Automatic annotation (TrEMBL):
UniProt entry tagged with the keyword Nuclease: no
Keyword terms, alphabetized: Metal-binding, Zinc, Zinc-finger
Keyword check for Repeat: no
Record protein name field: SBP-type domain-containing protein
Biased composition (Basic residues): 64-75
InterPro entries, sorted: SBP-like, SBP_dom, SBP_sf
GO molecular function: DNA binding; zinc ion binding
Composition bias type Basic and acidic residues, residue spans: 76-107
Region (Disordered): 64-113
Source species of the chain: Tetracentron sinense (Spur-leaf)
UniProt GO cellular component terms: nucleus
Amino acid sequence: MIQAEKCKAYLTDAKRYHRRHKVCEHHAKATVVLVAGLRQRFCQQCSRFHELLEFDEAKRSCRRRLAGHNERRRKNSSESHGEGSNRKGVDPHMKESHCRQGDEKGKIATSLPGNATYKHFQIG
């Protein structure tokens, strides 16, 4: 049973996401949908319909979920930049020397902090 009133869409050929949440693609993206007699909007974070007053402007995520999302982003951003760095995104170990010398073959070894997959590589 589709949640949006008077929706004639068939979910049998719809994406799995839309079938699981009983909402067609059109109503999942619509700014206003009539559900249970109330003007609502589908929240892409909660995967449910909320009343319009829970959203800011034309946003597709409710205020509560956006606040949590933004808080996590701020937390991760402050952790990744470090507190002692005076230049954003610059590795503190690279401040003294901008030019590195290569080995006898002219290759320069370097490492990327925090990325186990590509821990070391050479520029040659």
